[in-house]
Amino acid sequence: MKKVGLLLLSILAITLMLGGNAFAGVVGGDLSYYFVTYFSNANTSGAPDGTLRVINDGSQATSAPEGVENGTLWAAIYVFDDSQEMRSCCACKITSDGLLSESVNKELTANEFTGRGEMNRGVIKVISSWSWDPTAPSPYSGLRGWMTHIQATSTTLPAGKQPVEKGPFFVTETALADSNLSSTELWNLGTLCSYGLTIGSGYGLCPCTPEDYDF
Asked: How far is residue 23's CA from residue 80's CA, in Å, rounded to a whole number?
């Protein structure tokens, strides 16, 4: 009985140290829902394609049997050029434990609504969202992402012109950076996306790769 009593006392002490939650060590986590990254050397001769990859960590999954779609979130994606102008947007579906892979050249920068030509560098913003609509994102945690970056080995700066980056090129990969999403920024992203898609008459909606199709 003394041994049992000591065991129960030890369990109680550990529980109290964990704030009364015996699972506190595994339940906690990063509840971020807004991420940013950059792309460079896109649509550049001799340079490989960059890739944005986003997964659904399964935190919104239900107890449904395996194979039943649940815990679905959308990656609301907003692509800006290096003049700080939004050029395309979309919301791509990712079910629990699913993977989304987006090509920078063939998807994120291929169908833009300004008609000003190919983008070479810029910023990508991602919201982990409940909503399928990129013009009305609804932030909710559960997505995590990474981005491959195409790095040049040399850069020239012609007078009055855009920098010219030259190969050979190499590839690095980093996690998307957790960022601060203000109510103003949330409104701006949805509104700019809406205006762009409306004025572009359908142009600017980046296509979504079928889930779990990687490259």
From this structure: 41
Q: How many CB atoms lie within 10 A of CB 168?
A: 10
- Residue 40 CA to residue 38 CA, distance in Å, equals 7
* Inter-CA distances, 110 with 55, 117, 159, 170, 204, Å: 22, 9, 28, 22, 8
Q: How many CA atoms lie within 13 A of 178 on its CB side?
A: 8
**CB 175, CB 143: distance < 8 Å:** no
CB atoms within 10 A of CB 207: 14
- CA geometry: angle 176, 181, 187, nearest 5 deg: 120
> Considering only CA atoms, which of 184, 144, 116, 102 is closest in space to residue 192?
184
Opening angle at CA 202, ends 200 and 203, nearest 5:
60
Instruction: Answer for the pair 168, 61: CB distance below 8 angstroms, yes or no.
Output: no
Distance CA 117, CA 66 (A): 44
Amino acid at 78: Y
* Residue 106 in tokens: 């063939």
> pLDDT tens digits for 21-48?
433 444 556 789 999 999 999 999 889 9
- Strands 34-39, 164-166: pairing is unpaired
Task: Tell me the three state secondary structure of residue 211.
Answer: coil
| Residue type, position 63, single letter | S
Low-confidence ranges of the chain (pLDDT < 70): 1-29, 63-69, 155-167
pLDDT computed for residue 99 by the predictor = 95
Phi, psi of 9 (to 5 degrees): -65, -40
